[in-house]
Structure formats: C-alpha cells, structure tokens
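Our consortium's second objective concerns turning raw sequence data into structural hypotheses that experimental partners can test. To show how far this objective has progressed, the report includes one record in full. It was chosen at random from the queue rather than selected for favorable results. The single chain below, 255 residues long, was entered without modification.
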Amino acid sequence: MSQCTACGKPLTLEIDLDEEDEYDQDATASGTEVPDSVELSQCLLDAYEMIQCPKCAKDVSSHTSSGEEQVLCSLNNEGGLQQAFDILPILKEESYLKAFPEERRCRAFLEFCAEGDVGAILDLVNAEEDEDVSMNSNEGVAAKSSDVLRYRDPMGSLSTGLHVAVSNGREEIVWLLLFLASSLELHYFPADVLEAARTLSATREEQTGKVDIRVLEDSNHRTAENLAQQIGGMWEPWIQSERLRPIMDGVLPIV
C-alpha cells in the first residue's frame, strides 16, 4: 500500500458504505477504505503550500501550451483513477482557505452554484451556526448569508454565484439567486419558480439597502447579463426579457 512521503501514513480514506455504494469490496478486508492518493510524474506532493516536493525539493509543476502553470498527477480515490489530472487549482484554493478559513462557506456556495444544487444553497444560507461558519479567534468572522450570496471570487475573476450559474447553464440557480439577492419583483417570476420556493421554504429578505446581485461585475467588467449575452443559446430568452438587467432609472424588465 502506498504511503505518504511526508508522514508515512497509508494513503487511504475511510468511507461509510451502504447498499447503493459501488466501490470495490475486494480493495480492503473491511470494505470501508478506498485509495486516496496523488501520484505525480516525479514524486508525491505534500499539498497546499508549494509546488515543490517536500522530500526531494523537485519542482513538480509544468506549463500548458498557453503558458499556464499546472501540476499534473494521477489521482486515485473513491471516484477511480484519473490520469493527467491538474490538481493545482485545488491546491491553490486550499492554500487560500488556510489563510482565510472564514471564506470556506463562500467557496462552498460557489461550488453549489456551479453544480446546480438548490437544496445545498438553501441549507447554507439558512444555517445559523455550524463548524464552518461559527466564529472563533482562529477562523475570524464568518460571512453573513447576505454577504455569501453576493460573494465575489478573488480566485475566479471576481465572479459572483450568478456569474457561475450563468456560465454553467444553471437556470434554476439563476432564479434562486434572483429570488434571494435581487430586487426583481415577484410578479416577474414564473408561478412554478415561486411554488418551488415555497416548497423549499426559501425566504426572501427585504432588499432595500442591499446590493442587487445583478449589478456586480467580474474582473472583466461583465455583469451576469453581459456574460449571458456572450454565451447566448439558452440565455437568449433571458436577455430579451431583461430579467438579468438591474432596474436602472425606473426601467422595468420586459414581461
């Protein structure tokens, strides 16, 4: 069994198996451990703080044809073996979260927006306290739900959750974020969207004095509407209806 080059412990991860799990039961005697290793072309990487191996000090990074830095590895975990997997974005994010642990909740929010996980977003913004959002001297002040909804990703071109939802084609998330973090009046929402909001117990706070998520721009000075215009396709009806356009100077969206 492979061992960590830094601590010498086995590179496995314990999981809870149930009847629907499809992991290889012959991998371990108990059936509750799966591989959790990262193998680089030269040696193993300690993880989140550097691109040099902690054992031999070799640089394990390389560059794409466009000159972008990458760290390719063979990732073997419960999802199976992935060859030539660029792990550098994950390492950068973990390094960032080590420095700013209070933003872990915001990072999770962006992931849920990309994945289209409505339930997870609602659970996150409705959570009062848990291990990730509680305040202590080591983690700083956790972001409030209103700030999470309007979070701009410092590692991803200052994109908001609305940008992320648009770029990933997550129409249901766009509706949710407009419901939770915009001043778009309720009569512009389809009946099925409002019914889903009621079913999921989504609560819309008073938006007076709060930033409409639709006005927020990424580092390229694009609002979510600008991004939708660039993508086109499924977003054409949204562009025509102007629902993604903030209310400016009394101009209302087209019904």
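The partners drew two points from this record. The radius of gyration is 22 Å. The longest helix spans residues 88-99. Both points have been shared with the crystallography group to help prioritize constructs.
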